[in-house]
Amino acid sequence: MPQSSHASTLTDTQAALSRGGARRGFTLWLTGLSGAGKSTLAAAVADRLRAERGGVEVLDGDEVREHLTKGLTFSREDRDINVRRIAYVAKLLTRNGVGVITAAISPFRATRDEARREIGDGFIEVYVNAPLEECIRRDVKGLYEKALAGTIPSFTGVSDPYEPPAAPELELHTDRESLGESVERVLGLLRQRGLLPAGEVA
Question: Which CATH class is domain 21-192?
């Protein structure tokens, strides 16, 4: 007897679920100084998640400023606008089951707390922590050198403040951990929260 279209649809749905088709969205909010390793970590975590989970998007601070918030300055007001726009996009993606990874300095604690409220339960703050001296050492673009010389105004960590998270879900010390170790700690947190099955992502 031929299978009904309804039964076929159920079978397809069950198959999709068994492949992980239905996922809870989340936002990994990576915050830290320029050069701390946020973009590198975001790309590495995204690669691991895409291999098994799918439905992953990276919102990188530099790319967002180029395409979504072009024209904003680095004043306190414009920095807050930038973070709020990232949070809004992340919220839309998260509620549709996407795993979002943001990589933006987002220097002010109050604005990150706004992002947490905007996104809701799926918000996971990850403090990518590296000492200023290490960030300066890694600075291939020479931005810190220019900031220290006074040619780049309002540079976070030099002439503008950075407010570390008071209670992040995860703190990574990228001056002491390898990239692989940091990635595993992020994935471990996702597993603990039920956002990634325990056996997933080898």
Answer: alpha beta
Contact between 99 and 55 (Cβ < 8 Å): yes
Low-confidence ranges of the chain (pLDDT < 50): 1-21, 200-202
CB 112 within 8 A of CB 36: no
Residue 154 one-letter amino acid: S
pLDDT tens digits for 100-137?
999 999 999 999 999 999 999 999 999 999 999 999 99
Task: Report yes or no on whether pTM surpasses 0.70.
Answer: yes
pLDDT for 55 equals 92
Residue 69's pLDDT is: 62
Strands in 170-173's sheet, in edge-to-edge order, are: 56-60, 99-103, 26-31, 123-129, 170-173
Q: Which two tokens stand for residue 19?
A: 């492949």
Tokens at 134, concatenated: 């290490």
Q: Is 155 exposed, middle or buried (0-12, 13-18, 19+ CB in 10 A)?
A: middle
- Joined tokens for residue 77: 């007001």
**Residue 176 pLDDT:** 97
124 φ/ψ sector (left φ>0, alpha ψ -120 to 50, else beta) = beta
Angstrom CA distances, 152 to 59, 142, 197, stand at 24, 11, 45
**106 catalytic per annotation:** yes
Out of 18, 106, 159, 182, the active site residue is: 106
